[in-house]
Sequence to fold (822 residues):
Amino acid sequence: MPKQLFIDPQKVRKPGKITFGEIPINQYQKTLAEEKENYTREELMEIYRDMVVIREFETMLNKIKTTNEYHGIRYNHPGPAHLSIGQEAAAVGMAFLLDPDDYIFGSHRSHGEILAKGMSAIRKLNEEKLLNIMKGYMDGVTLRVVERQEHDHTFDLALDFLLYGTLAEIFAKRTGFNKGLGGSMHAFFPPFGIYPNNAIVGGSGDIGVGAALYKKVNRKPGIVVVNIGDASMGCGPVWEGITFATMDQFRTLWEEPYRGGLPVIFNFMNNQYGMGGQTSGETMGYGILARVGAGVNPEMMHAERVDGYNPLAVIDAFRRKKKILEEKKGPVLLDTLTYRYSGHSPSDASTYRTKEELEAWMAQDSLRAFERDLVANGITTEDEVAALRESIVERLVRILRWTVDGELSPRMDLVKHPDEIADLMFSNGSVEKMEDREPEVLMPLEENPRVQQLKRKERFGLDKNGKPFSKVKTFQLRDAIFEAIIDRFYKDPTLIAYGEENRDWGGAFAVYRGLTESLPYHRLFNTSISEGAIVGTAIGYAMCGGRVIPEIMYCDFLGRAGDEVFNQMPKWQAMSGQVLKMPVVLRVSVGSKYGAQHSQDWTSLVAHIPGLKVVFPATPYDAKGLMNAALQGTDPVIFFESQRIYDIGEYFHEGGVPEGYYEVPIGQPDIKRKGKDITILSVGATLYRALEAADILQEEYNISAEVIDARSLVPFDYSLVLESVRKTGRLLVTGDATERGSFLKEMAQSVADLAFDDLDAPPVVVGSRNWITPAHELEHFFFPQPSWIIDAIHERIVPLPGHKVQQDYTNDTLLRQKREGV
Ligand SMILES: Cc1ncc(C[n+]2csc(CCOP(=O)(O)OP(=O)(O)O)c2C)c(N)n1
Ligand SMILES: [Mg+2]
Fold:
């Protein structure tokens, strides 16, 4: 179905000029006297108090880090504490107007933002809601500690809860907001709209956009604020996040009520430094960060620099920018200018800046300046301020005392409960839909043209005489994946899918052909060529409560989404203590024929990372069943598909691929051919070469091979393989991954460990060569071939009478290859 947007050569070839509008810089100039009528006294004092709380909280941490003591309480905190002393006005100004439904994402330096947003949320929630949140969170373990103290009011209790939950998290206590698994750089608390802070600089740059996408697609209230540092403007995920968030289609192609910009503010907490690199003048070229907005879209992202040293200036900016988002004219870029007095971390000797500079900024300290202003304007008195400060210190002393107390605030006891972290790695949920409402579709499922076409296909690949049907007649592996996905689109209203060429094109390999007809834009769309943002936004979408299928067109492009796949998708379930779920099914297509950068099987890379489920089906029956299982689950699944076999039919499952719903459990291998003399365990499309090898073994050497299709890599239940090896005494593992360091080796090693006594010979691995993938015409020298399997069996497991090897698997050759690194 072609797009409605006509690209008119008459128009686009016309001469002209692009003009840029103005980007405001520090335009807010109101005095407190002028603002007095816009705020109540109470509100002004809240702004002040929040800043003092943050300043004192971080001062306490700084003292603990540098002197191991705060007001007589001794403690050693070996972990990180990236402080933002000096930046309080920026944090409080950012959070002041936000509702609990507004989400913030942050960075390694986000304690201040956590507290500011938490205190803002506490003010906006009523007592009942607050109590419910505190009681329900992690079964009330955090609340029980702070309840020891009598509190006059729920709001007071909630402040202790916020401070304690954050500090206990920073000190890795089990009673912290994330069971101590997040720590200083990752602490968060979703019920107050505080979403993950990220130790990877710029990591929130695309994840936060996914949260905004979740809000838009599922029509949830609120906006998203991505709080990231000025130096993160040099990071790929931030640029990709901005690119994704500003895609024209939100305004041109998406239908009402989804039409309009994403509700997200990229709020750069511009303290003017990376660690020691000065962004303006040294490591970046933008001069003034807000300038970047100019080139991104015609609205220039409504970019603006705001004085982050004045909390009222920041509040004013957020009030105006929030309105822009509510009018669906986002996204917005804010350059919130500030300065940190603390070092990057407590060990930082500040060698990169002068004392004069530091003192000049301290002389204008936002907290002192605001305090002076409040007193001068008769809003408070010096005595009142002093009393307030003292009460905050007292409160923090109390909180710190609770936190360092090992009995009140224990760590996870991995001696008593050795599996406590292991149990958090996967949620292993089984959930048909992430929300209970009607999914939006454009036609009944039965009327979908591809669904109708598939009804006429042969669901078993062979006719009565065992002859394969023609490709056109055959229900193919790509059809099986389509069938599982479209079924879920009609069940789960939150499900969306996107990636490169996913919509009109039908997916690069025709898996999605027909989906466009059934789905509105907001459920299936093309993205910019931004693999990082494709995966990163999916992570944000899922952690907010949606289910999503992002796609990487070729496995070789996984590197472009490296941080998202290796550091983000696998970790947030466990790092949140399972408060967040991650129902992301990342489809990854493994290529061939296209040489060194389009033909790699990188299953081993992702199988290496704890926290990801990894599957690689090789038959239509398994592909549909595994896709169903992945889409029913709540864990991140990397779903590998081989381009070599997208058109293959079902040759194994009796009766062919069922039309109805069924699941193939993730982690269960399957015997594709029974045998008794040797076990061949194959991963992915290599199955068919393994079966060819089994034919040769039978016909030429009278050896009966049992061929097991791994189907999954993680998790993996070895019992079937062990049972087979008990019978055959021999194992060969094969797959298309380059052999060195591959998951094939892991499988071989595991069986050697678990079934040593049953084996007649060590397990042998036949993977691809440790080379670049050559051109299609030479590929058979690179990917494992049936003859290689026979050669390896002959040389390393059991001599085959009269066999002449083509590939040398002798010790000498293996040693030489390893010595040379090839
Ligand atoms: C991807 C990545 N690269 C490098 C680092 C190491 N690092 C931690 S903070 C930091 C500077 C970040 O500066 P900015 O984004 O301005 O945030 P700020 O620390 O100033 O708040 C660096 C380089 C990291 N954590 N992640
Ligand atoms: Mg910075």
User: Anything to note?
Assistant: The chain has a mean pLDDT of 97. The longest helix spans residues 41-67. Residues 229-231, 271, 273-274 surround magnesium ion (ligand 2) (CB under 6 Å). The radius of gyration is 30 Å.
